[in-house]
Amino acid sequence: MTDQWLTSFEERRKEREQADRSFVLLGETITVKPSVAPQVGIRLNSARATAISDLVAAQAARDKGQDVPAPGITDEQMLEIAEETIRALIEPSSLEGWERLRSVDNPAPLTFREIFELCDYLIARASGIPTDALAGSSNGQSAGKRSSKAASSSKAAGLKV
């Protein structure tokens, strides 16, 4: 007797492995791995949580007229973690193209925010999570909310809350 759930599970994995997982980003072909361990995104999410806590603590200190505490994570550390995450999500054959995209000599380098957007996209692709909003879904803001006009730090620019 065949277990339908196991059969379906294995079929989905096989389809994902055989699917075209390549895309072109700024002229470079990048191929996403068919699957990655959940730990790949955990360090990135932890870093984002630390950065958000840093921003909240800094704002609270400013509001109270106190010195802003030292951050628990720097922009350099955030970028390093994002790079590490991207490298874990793409096929080894795509690393050379990624290096060209990230080169300091690139005339149109990826921004801090774009790197984090790419992380989210790659995690979604590797995990099978839809990368586009579903039809009719909202952006998460109710009509009564107003967006902040304040400038954000570079860490905040790469965060999802």
Could you please describe the fold and organization of this structure?
This protein is mainly α and 161 residues long. The protein has a domain at 23-129. The protein is built from six helices and two strands. It has helices at 4-18, 39-63, 75-89, 95-102, 112-127, 154-157; strands spanning 22-25, 28-31. The longest helix is centred in the N-terminal third of the chain and has 25 residues, at 39-63. The model is unreliable at 133-154 (pLDDT under 50).
Briefly characterize the structure.
By secondary structure, the chain is mostly helical. 52% of the residues lie in helices and 5% in strands.
Largest sheet: 2 strands, antiparallel
Shape: flat
Query: How many helical stretches?
Result: 6
Question: How far from one another are the termini?
Answer: 46 Å
* Rg measurement, Å: 19 Å
Topology pattern, helix = H, strand = E: HEEHHHHH
Report the mean per-residue pLDDT as an integer.
Answer: 81
